[in-house]
Amino acid sequence: MLPATRRWTIPSTLIVTGVLGAAVLTFPGTAGATSTTTASTPTGVTIPSSAFSTTAATPAVTAATAPVTARTTVVRRTSRVVAAHLRRSATRPSHYYVVVSVQVASTTRTTAWIKVGSAITSRVRRATAARTATSASAVAGSRAAAIRRARTAATTGARRLADVSAATTSRRAATAAARAAVLAGVPAPPPGPVSTSSVGAITMPKGNLPGLRQVFADDFATTTARGAFLKTYSSRWSAYGPGWKDTSGHGVYDGNRTLSTGGGLLDIYLHTEGSTHYVAAPTPKMPKMTYGRYSIRFQADSLPGYKAAWLLWPDDDVWPAHGEIDFPEGDLNSNFSAFSHYARSGGGQAPFTLSATFGRWHTATIDWLPGKVVFYLDGRVVGTNTRSVPSTPMHWVLQTETALRATAPASNVAGHVRIDWITAYAYTP
Fold first, then answer.
1. What pTM does this model have?
2. Is CATH 1.10.1200.30 correct for 212-427?
């Protein structure tokens, strides 16, 4: 940018109204003023499908592989001059340049359709994008002519950027919506005769259920002191660490400093020694599983700065593409929720916010079934998700750690998370 003494604002009388393609630009009034007018809807202004990636047709067309055809049209543009200056040449003092910046907002409409067999499903989406381009033109005889040249060049560049940006967004959204609509019509595998008789149990359920085979159960009948749990229960339990940082980075996982059993309870003692906040993530040892039921009965002290995120995590650590299921999850001094994270590369989740807190005893159950995740609290359904459900093996982790905050918990905060029992079932339709 040149110093102010080398920069002049173009007088308003020199900014003329001109028709540039489908966009009308005006710059009336006092020096430096701008205004915007809406362009009429262009006809035949179409961004072809070949400008974007498409799905190639295959001999055996299914809902998942059928090609999507899309047509994207620019339906509306608004334009405005956002800056206009007359500048003296730095090398040739007697010469001047007109510098004009133009912003164009393009709105596109995309129709995407997908055909499977004789059925055609279509979806329409709109998107708007605003882009700015700047152009300079030497003053050679007529300032007005230089202004027109600079404004035309800037508008052309801004229009191209805005059109492509809006079209790309619109087309992607319409394509995804069309494919999702088709896939939604494909029936999910039948969930099988899954029993719900144990989802609100107070005492630990034992034995198989219709559609479910019990593969893990522990009510912590053997008493152990801290430091002995992982050795005594080594055939059934492992834990993160010791020495691993937790999710927020404020805590350190160490089962030897936090885990013990007594009175039929697993005790997770969250506390600080010196400047280290000790947390735990015990993990039940179970067979490799895709789908099942996971139940736990629990209660905790109100501990600001700490949280529970007991979750099913993909065995291959591919996240977010292979999903995640969390229940319960929340700060220990607040209410907890349930989250079914979508198994897709773009991530996303289905959240279910609850008013329940950790201070009372609860039984939480996750039913992870083909095409469906169901959350139960104390025998009542509190959330169901059927969108992008994980379908690869996952394992259970009772991740109990520092809260996701900018600061660590206070050093004087210490207390207990208590687990009465946990059970797990393999899905057997």
1. 0.59
2. no
